[in-house]
């Protein structure tokens, strides 16, 4: 296998590209201009325990794992994410004006059908039009479909877990940013392609990098496959205008020792992940990092 450049070096090169070559554009949802660059590709070597977590600022270690577990379980409440160890959905669930006014919102902490909840409830149409409408007969859990196929050594070229269903957008507080995972088998070697439509590079992408890498490692462990490369495509990669000064500071810093990640070997099935696994079972050793940078979060 070819040598893959350290993930943080890739990240900093991409951050510099956005900062120096991006175009400043207005953002209607947040009202804050974004410096935007189209198409950033990152690659992580999941055959090692070197996790793609930045050291040029202090970054969260439990939040990305808690989010990933919550997505796999299909959680629809910010409270459930908090119990796992992530407060990242609090603002989207409780402070987004459009969602607060949405009649589908059930109350405090309700996120609606977003991310993993979409993938676990994908509508299946087994009959055609009746009175001009498609008839939903049941739903498909995409996590289970992909897991079962990979565990059986099957790759139908469609081992895709997708959070992107426009028919669900009115039922949730936020469209998915990292919206698609495709797993591929070459013999017993497992690869992952992840596609992200919108990448808040200073904040969101830092967590998404960890999630893409960890999802490949975790899926490989529970399907008895060998984790190889994770390819992470960031389509609309941007820095919000109020983050530019922090990015300028981060780009002056030199990466420190690479963090590592270990997964509890007792995690053997998707059912384990769905039920008893916690952030303490997927541990990141993060011993060296530069001081925090206070990047504002836009909702």
Describe this entry's structure for a reader:
The protein has 299 residues and is of the alpha+beta class. It has a single domain, classed as Thymidylate synthase/dCMP hydroxymethylase domain (Thymidylate Synthase, Chain A), CATH 3.30.572. 30% of the residues lie in helices and 26% in strands. The chain has a 6-stranded mixed β-sheet with strand order 1-2-8-7-6-5. A two-stranded antiparallel sheet has the order 3-4. Helix 2 (62-73) crosses helix 3 and helix 2 packs across helix 8 (204-223). The N and C termini lie far apart (41 Å).
Question: How would the blueprint of this fold be written?
Answer:
Elements: H1 7-21, E1 23-25, E2 34-45, H2 62-73, H3 78-84, H4 90-94, H5 97-100, H6 116-119, E3 122-130, E4 133-140, H7 142-151, E5 160-162, E6 178-186, E7 189-200, H8 204-223, E8 226-240, H9 244-250, E9 260-263, H10 270-275, E10 282-285
Parallel strand pairs: 7-8
Antiparallel strand pairs: 1-2, 2-8, 3-4, 5-6, 6-7, 9-10
Helix pairs in contact: 2-3, 2-8
Radius of gyration: 19 Å
Total helical segments: 10
User: Poorly predicted ranges (pLDDT <50, ≥5 residues)?
Assistant: none
Helix content: 25-40%
Could you give a short description of this structure?
The protein is of the alpha+beta class and 299 residues long. The protein is 30% helix and 26% strand.
Protein traits:
299 residues, alpha+beta, Thymidylate Synthase, Chain A, six-stranded mixed sheet, two-stranded antiparallel sheet
């Amino acid at each position: 296998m070819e040598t893959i450049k350290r993930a943080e070096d890739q990240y900093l090169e991409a951050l510099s590209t956005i900062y120096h070559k991006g175009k400043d554009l207005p953002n209607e949802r947040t009202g804050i201009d974004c410096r935007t660059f189209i198409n950033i590709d990152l690659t992580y070597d999941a055959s090692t325990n070197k996790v793609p977590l930045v050291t040029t600022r202090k970054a969260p270690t439990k939040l990305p794992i808690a989010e990933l577990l919550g997505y796999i379980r299909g959680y629809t409440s910010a409270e459930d994410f908090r119990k796992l160890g992530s407060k990242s959905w609090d603002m989207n669930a409780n402070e987004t004006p459009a969602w607060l006014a949405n009649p589908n919102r059930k109350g405090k902490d309700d996120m609606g059908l977003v991310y993993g909840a979409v993938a676990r409830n994908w509508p299946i149409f087994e009959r055609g039009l009746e009175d001009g409408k498609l008839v939903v007969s049941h739903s498909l859990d995409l996590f289970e479909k992909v897991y079962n196929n990979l565990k059986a050594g099957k790759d139908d070229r469609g081992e895709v877990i997708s959070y992107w269903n426009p028919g669900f957008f009115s039922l949730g507080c936020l469209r998915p940013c990292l919206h698609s995972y495709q797993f591929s088998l070459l013999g017993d070697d497992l690869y992952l392609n992840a596609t992200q439509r919108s990448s808040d590079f200073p904040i969101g992408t830092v967590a998404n990098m960890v999630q893409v890498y960890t999802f490949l490692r975790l899926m490989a462990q529970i399907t008895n496959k060998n984790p190889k490369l994770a390819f992470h495509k960031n389509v609309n990669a941007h820095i919000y205008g109020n983050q530019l000064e922090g990015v300028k500071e981060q780009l002056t810093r030199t990466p420190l020792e690479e963090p590592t990640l270990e997964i509890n070997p007792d995690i053997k099935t998707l059912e384990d992940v769905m039920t008893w696994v916690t952030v303490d079972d997927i541990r990141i050793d993060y011993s060296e990092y530069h001081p925090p940078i206070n990047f504002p979060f836009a909702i």
